[in-house]
Specification:
It contains 14 helices and eight strands. The chain has helices at residues 34-38, 43-51, 68-81, 92-108, 168-187, 193-215, 220-240, 244-256, 260-276, 290-301, 309-326, 333-336, 341-357, 370-380; strands at residues 9-12, 27-31, 55-59, 85-90, 115-120, 132-137, 142-147, 155-158. The strands form two sheets. A six-stranded parallel sheet has the order 1-8-5-4-2-3, sandwiched between helices. Strands 6-7 form a two-stranded antiparallel ribbon. α5 runs antiparallel to α6 (193-215). The relative contact order is 0.11. Residues 33, 35, 64-65, 90-94, 96, 121-122, 124-127, 130, 132-134, 162-163, 165-166, 170, 174, 177, 260-261 line the site of nicotinamide-adenine-dinucleotide (NAD).
């Protein structure tokens, strides 16, 4: 038996942030990063809270790829302030921090039910609707995905006004994270009709609007569409889970601090080739791996040609590489120019072990051996 649930109530469209004036809470802790706290955009959050006569305080020390130390500081703050809800404002790092802070604080002192309202300011992780939170342990150079239904926000507020200030490079990285979520959900061994419907819509939107949002950050329509796509892809992978792409990307983030979406984007062409067992030398054959049919559907959604299976999968790989080039995302680690070949090659064995153990890898459509993962990391150089 399977089930499909959307636990989070999603508010979206014009004036969506007005919801903050009417939330059923009296005392909230806003958790955000220093950029947002210093920007005038924070008023878009605090003004409706004031209008609703809701008491609030701000914890603004979130950092990208939230490390355990920062989560502990947030736990301390929450237990001192004892809010009846948390309002998470920011990218995946702020939302994941908020999920972890609430979870760990209530384990220390279960003083009552604490709501969680997530307000994304990037169109990327879909964390506003997922039961995942990714926490980093810099000492061990590891990223741990925490998974529990209890982490899922009660409400999400999607307002694309908050995303307009995202610079092109972060629009590119986070947008490719959306695409990777949707694609991995489409080919996951855990996929179902509900998750696939959501993922396919997200893919269609990425095909039309990601480049537009990248080229003109003030293109409101494109921003709104990508904000919806991010949430749709989040709902999709919350049900279908992800795959090897994310399992391997987490290690590139943990060790080399490559932004999450960028690491996913760079790996994508390699993972599509691995999962389909189709590369630029392939000839047609009588049988294909299961992912091939699903990649073909995705290619069609993007408007790519479908002469035969090999060319269709190749067109999908080419589309991803085209997007990377257009949005100035490096195609390889060596092209980044910031990591030496020696340090990268030395890290591969450890990264391969960690990617094999990563929970996302379990639902990859092709079961990888460690040697495959090692080879994929080498190919990425
Ligand atoms: N929980 C999940 O389901 C899930 C899924 C995928 C990724 N993640 C995690 O989320 C994190 C990545 O999140 P992210 O990609 O949203 O990036 P992020 O939250 O780390 O933010 C990246 C940068 O963008 C800046 N930023 C955010 N909003 C901005 C705005 N409106 N204008 C200008 N700058 C802005 C931030 O200050 C930061 O410097 C990683 O830790 C990743 O592992 C979580
Ligand atoms: Fe992701």
């Amino acid at each position: 038996m399977k089930s499909f649930e959307i636990k989070t109530k999603v508010y979206f469209g014009d004036q969506a942030l007005d919801r903050l004036a009417e939330i059923p809470y009296r005392k909230v802790l806003v958790i955000t990063d220093p950029f947002m706290a210093q920007s005038s955009m924070i008023n878009l959050i605090t003004d409706p809270l004031k209008k609703g006569k809701i008491e609030f305080d701000i914890f603004k020390d979130v950092v990208p790829d939230p490390p355990i130390e920062k989560i502990s500081e947030g736990v301390k703050k929450m237990l001192e302030y004892k809010p009846d809800a948390i309002v998470a404002v920011g990218g995946g790092s702020a939302i994941d921090s908020s999920k972890s802070i609430r979870e760990f604080a209530l384990r220390v002192d279960n003083y009552g039910k604490v709501g969680l309202i997530a307000i994304p300011t990037t169109s990327g992780t879909g964390s506003e609707v997922t039961s995942f939170a990714v926490v980093s342990d810099p000492k061990e150079q590891m990223k741990y995905p925490l998974v529990s239904r209890d982490l899922t926000p009660d409400e999400a507020i999607l307002d694309a006004e908050l995303v307009k200030s995202v610079p092109p490079a972060i629009t590119a990285d986070t947008g490719m994270d959306v695409f990777t979520h949707a694609l991995e959900a489409c080919v996951s061994t855990n996929k179902n009709d509900f998750s696939t419907a959501l993922a396919e819509k997200a893919i269609e939107i990425c095909g039309v609007f990601l480049l537009r949002a990248y080229l003109d950050g003030n293109d409101t329509h494109a921003r709104q569409k990508m904000h919806s796509a991010s949430c749709l892809a989040g709902l999709a992978f919350n049900s279908a889970s992800l795959g090897l792409n994310h399992g391997m990307a987490h290690q590139l983030g943990a060790i080399f601090h490559i932004p999450h979406g960028r690491a996913n984007a760079m790996l994508l062409p390699h993972i599509i080739e691995f999962n389909s067992d189709i590369n630029k030398h392939s000839k047609s054959r009588t049988e294909y791996l299961p992912a091939v049919k699903r990649y073909a559907t995705v290619a069609q959604l993007l408007g790519l040609s479908s002469y035969n299976k090999i060319m269709t999968v190749r067109s999908l790989v080419n589309w991803v590489q085209f997007m990377l080039k257009e949005m100035d995302i490096p195609l390889s680690i060596s092209q980044m120019g910031t990591i030496s070949e020696e340090e990268y090659m030395n890290a591969i064995d450890h990264m391969a072990d960690a990617a094999m153990a990563d929970g996302c890898t379990d639902t990859n459509p092709r079961v990888p051996r460690k040697a495959d993962v090692v080879q994929l990391y080498k190919n990425l150089w």
